[in-house]
Amino acid sequence: MMSVSGTMIGYLQWRGFTAGSIALLKGVCTVSELLGTVMMPAMSRYVGLIRTGAWSIWLEVATLTPVLLSIYSDRLPVQVVIFVGMALSRVGVWSFDLVITQIMQEYTHSTSQGDAGSFDNAGVINGWHYSMMNVFELAQFILTMIWSNPQSYFIPCTLSFGCIVLGAIVYSTYLIKMRGHLFHYQRIASAASAASSCLVTDNAEYDDEIGEQERDALALQPNTNGNVNMALVLQGGPDGTKEGTENALALQGAKDACLWNLPSNQGFQYRTCTLHTLTPSSETPGAYSGLIPAKANENDFMMALGYFPSKAIQTAANANGNKLFAIADFEFTPPVGNIVSVMYSEDQIGYIAGLLAGEVAKSRGGKVAVIGGVDQPSVRRQVNGFGSGVRIACLTCKAYGLYAGKFDADPRLTSTVAQILRDHHVSVVFNAASIFGTMTLKNLTTQDGIYGIGSGSDEWITNWAYGSVPGSEHILTSIQTDYTVMVRSVMQSVLRANLTGGSTVFYGANPNAEQSAIKLAPVHEAGAVYTKEIEGKMHGYIADMVKGKLQTGVDHKSGDSRSSGSSMLG
């Protein structure tokens, strides 16, 4: 009702506006809408997408308030108020519309990280969104029919303004849910405290897509004479903390960081640290939901591993706004105010695997492949990174990619995927599909002698049981993600009181193996193929990656290759 539509034009003519002034108002509003289109991406880069939406919709409320008052009163300078108010409101309207569109396109489907039904849910949510927009579009014409007298125009305008305010309140509630707060109250009290809220490690980098202000959502308060309680939530399942497992590595990192007597010369803001370890009964979301929320209040900081605890972590974070949480190998998009998403640079994982596959395949037919799980950004980063790495190591090699659509075991689908790879005569296969990829590699290495590259843990140890499982001699190595380095670094940052929620932190490769979160596992039985010469080349490649001489060419947000990644198989 409060835009330059047919209804408003009729009202303005009744108020004595000339046709020329109405045309000028229409033109100014159009220019303002273009300004909103330009402002939104620039502002989003500075304060983050979610906060840009809040600024935009409240700008609309603020600028339309005097317009509504001018409709009620003849004493205000009506033409000036309506011109300025409506023109400025279009900046907020257009910017907010773009924010909502981007959230619907980029964030709705990625929150479940691997649930195939989430893509259908995104369609349902988008359908409801546009249907409700059409309902309210229709409502304005119904209101005009009911209050058709220009003297009653203030009634539908008031109802319309009330809907805008309600929308701003609802969006602000969503903002609080995502970030843990509406304003940075601590900045009002002490602007200087914000300068310390930054994690700096040798192998960590921040996601540039998250605005600088978005990162400072929550940090634990220093207490140099106090104790901090930390909880590490291990993964469920039968392996427990066996050697080489992610649990064992993560637990070692936590023990390295959380010491009872913390050194006073390393910048720690606490005197003592108490570590609690929690293990669910099984590796399922339900098992975590029965564990994490119940224990959250007993700890100052809690860290979990992987996708399965993500919903339980968010539930606990929402219920404990003054506590800090972290989750490894999962990214909350949009970010949550008191949760730190800790990620490996998955494009580097795929890239290193591709470099090795290309080097090995040069003399073995020149065809390699990567098995991806669910087609989502985290997996696409590995798949397309793999293709980029192959091209660097072997320009004439052909890299194939295949998405299985799942991560868990499926014997029938495993046989199908293995047969597809046989039909394409590949010689090296990289596992980017977790358990499903491991089962496929076991099929290929046993029956066909195809060489495999594992991921995550040292799969020769964990899944080929120290060489006791058939096909182990064809495991070249694994691209190991070292939870010891990651967990130690994250917890030490908490102890230094400079880790903040609402952020995503990335850990990647480093020439120093002790400081590298992504590394090549040792060569066990495949030394005749993965030769010392190739091993030397791989160390050189990794050094060039760290120096920036080699780039993966993969876009983080989408996971797509900026040039071309692996050729996809059906």
The N- to C-terminal Cα distance equals 51 Å
Overall number of strands: 14
Low-confidence stretches: 109-120, 184-216
Report the C-alpha radius of gyration, rounded.
28 Å
Number of helices: 18
Bin the helical content. Answer: 40-55%
**In terms of structural class, how would the helical and strand content be classed?**
alpha/beta
Mean pLDDT: 83
Query: Percent of residues in beta strands?
Result: 5-15%
Shape: elongated
Strand order of the largest sheet: 1-12-6-5-4-2-3
Q: Main sheet? A: 7 strands, mixed
Subcellular location: Membrane
Organism: Dissophora globulifera
Protein name: Solute carrier family 40 member
Main location: membrane
Description of the molecule:
It is found in: Membrane. Belongs to the ferroportin (FP) (TC 2.A.100) family. SLC40A subfamily. It is a multi-pass membrane protein. The chain is built from 18 helices and 14 strands. The chain is of the alpha/beta class. Helix 16 links the parallel strand 10 (about 450-455) and strand 11. Helix 3 packs antiparallel against helix 6, helix 12 (about 345-360) runs parallel beside helix 13 (about 375-395) and helix 14 packs across helix 15. It has helices at about 5-15, 20-45, 50-70, 80-105, 120-145, 155-180, 185-190, 245-255, 285-290, 290-295, 310-320, 345-360, 375-395, 410-425, 435-445, 460, 485-495, 530-545, and strands at about 205, 225-235, 270-280, 300-305, 325-330, 340-345, 365-370, 400-405, 430, 450-455, 475-480, 505, 520, 565-570. The protein is about 50% helix and about 15% strand. It is elongated and about 90 Å long. The longest helix is centred in the N-terminal third of the chain and has 29 residues, at about 20-45. The strands form 2 sheets. It has a 7-stranded mixed β-sheet. Strands 13-11-10-9-7-8-14 form a 7-stranded mixed β-sheet, with helices on both faces. The two termini are about 50 Å apart.
